[in-house]
Each structure stands twice: as C-alpha cells, then as structure tokens.
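fyi for ur records
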Amino acid sequence: MSILIKQVAWNGTTVDVHISGSQIKKIGDCSGQTAEVVLDGRNKALLPTFHNAHTHAAMAYMRSYADDLELFTWLNDHVWPLESKIIEEDVYNGARLACLEMIKSGTTFFNDMYWFWHGTARAVEETGLRAALSAVFIDFDDHAKAKEQVEQNKRLFEERTHYSNRIIFQLGPHAIYTVSEKSLRWCTEFAAEHGLMIHIHLSETGKEVTDCIAKHGLRPAEYLDSIGFLGPNVAAAHCIWLEKSEMELLAKRGAKALHCPSSNMKLASGKFRFTDAVSAGMQVAIGTDGSASNNCLDMGSEIKMAALLEKHFTGNTTALNAQTAWHAGTRACAEFYSLDSGRIAEGALADCMLVDLNNERLVPGHNLVADMVYSADSSCIDTVICDGKILMQNRHVPGEEEIIAKGRAFKEKFRR
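which gave:
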C-alpha cells in the first residue's frame, strides 16, 4: 500500500510525506508522486505514535470491575478469581477492545503480558497494531506447574511464526514472588538462546521487598542479579521500591524500567523516581498498565501524569520536561524492542498519526510537543497509521461498533 500525505505540518515546516509499504520513503516535496491513498494534511501535524511500555491489554474486560483496593487484596480476592473463569475468546475480545482504545488514542505498539497468548496475538494481527507479547509465567514454586509453563512457552515460541512480524514473542515471568528461582533461571537461558526479551514486574510494593529480603537476604533487583537474570533484554515494570544502588545495578546490566504512574497511584503502590532512575543511568519508558488498574490505555494522559508527578515529587518544575516525557512515551520503548518507530524520518517505519491543529486544545500552537504532553487528549488525533496502513481516519476505526458490542457482553458474563 502507498499513502501520500500532502501539505502537512512537520518540525515547524509544511511538507509532503510519501509512504510505501511499511516505510516512510520521502519527506519534502513530493510533487508528481502518486499513491493509492492521498490524505489532505492541511491544518494537521504529523507525529510519531505512542508506544505503551507495559500493559495487560485483555484486562479491558475488567475495567472498573474491582476498584479502590490494595494490590494484593485486588489480585487475590478479585483479579485472579475472575481470571480463573476466562477462556481464550474472552482474551481475544478483551484485547480487541484494548487495541481499539489504543488506536483511537494514538498508540501503535504495546508491550503486553497476559494469559491465552494466542487470543491477544489474534487481536493484534486483526487490528493492525504492533506488540511484544508474553504469556504470564507463574508457578508459585510448584514443580509440576513450572514444567507445564516451560512447555507452554516452548510451544508458543514455535507457534509465533503463525503471525506477522508485527508481533514479537517474549517471555513473561510475572514476578519474583510468583515464579520460582529455577523457572527464572530457565527464562534467562531460553531468552539468551533465542534472542528474546523478558518482561517482568519488579519492586512494585514494599511487601515484595520485605519478603525478598526475608527469603533471600537480598533486595529484589539484587536477588535477580545474583541468579544471572538481569541484562539488556529485561524490561521491568513499576520499579518503585528501588534504592539508588539497585538503580545503578539495573543501569549497569542494561535492564529497562517501565513507569506506570496512574496505576501506581491508584493502587497506592508507591512512587517511581524518574529523575533518580535516569541520573543512575537507567533507560525508562512509560506505560499504562492494564485497564483494571488504570483504568484506561490512553498514553497521552499517562505521559502528562508522569511529567506532573515528577515535578510534584521533586518540587522541581524543570523535572521530566515535555520533550523528555514525550520521548519516554514514544521512542524509548521502540528502542527497547529494536523498532525503528517512535520517530518521523525517511526510512523509518510508517507508524505515525495526524493531529488536528484546529482542535481547541492545540490552539494557539506555541509548542506542539508541549501541547501534546500537557493539553491534548485523544480528540486531537484524527488519523493513525501503522506499518503503512491506515487504522483510523476521521476518528473512525473500521469495525469498531462490533468490537464495542462484544466488549459490552463482558458485563453480563462476569456479573457478580
């Protein structure tokens, strides 16, 4: 497919943009260039799309199901009991609902961990997004369960070839308190053998730290390092209860931090210290977490939340400025997964969005990045393109009505 965007604002100038296949081929004067689809870029700006660094996408089916609860009460008494009842079709429909929300709010890539891997993979494939997907690996130190999980992940690794290259397979050991040391070591070895990323929750609560010290005599990051787990292929969600020495350790090993400010606040888990992490040398990207603990997947609002929280926590108005926050919500996670996206450039992946410069939230237009971080909402996003294909135009996603209808059915299925 080829797309020609005519007379669109980009980097303070007006340009044409030619997209062919999955790439941006030319930015500039495209006079005489033809394309299958021509988009009028007047009064619009071209921007990279958001990359959501941490999700449990299919949990869109659980939005507002269990709120205002402490993390372990929320997990043990509400989330896990409900998840024991779901089937792959539920995950497929929940993930489609999540993908729809992400498209309509300008996200084209998400980093996910959830049950029924194929359910989410099917949803991503059909909706046209990109994603790094991991099946939840939990064994609770049960040898039989661990063996089952290992075999499942080996099988899924082979079955990943059923899908396009928009889907990246990775491993997803849930956390140190749900996965045995033996299984964590297996994840490290299997990932190294096959060049895979590992997605894990780390130091999300004070209890996790206290329990780890009691069991291993080490803090969580130190424990993972002691078993050879940490490396540049590790993406660790939350990273709230880290001491400076742990931040420096994670930075030394090249492990990535995935910051989820809204979920952290809603679950009162604690505060991630963005400025301290970056000062320690850590790489940080922003994510929403799942809809059960956020309760939305809107990366624009998440970036704003991250920026404002860091200023509030530090008492420093210059902390996590708009440009840095924008990078953490766009390019940073793309770099983690070796994707040439999250930027607009010739040769880069054609993952981009057109924002409406006539939207009142973007007027008068002093600084577009600052506007996108501090004042925009999803209503500003007119068109979303991923892999050179138009996923949304004029704020409409083909098939969205059916996806929403399927989403509503969850209310009856899981009625308490």
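The longest strand covers residues 2-10. thats all i got for now
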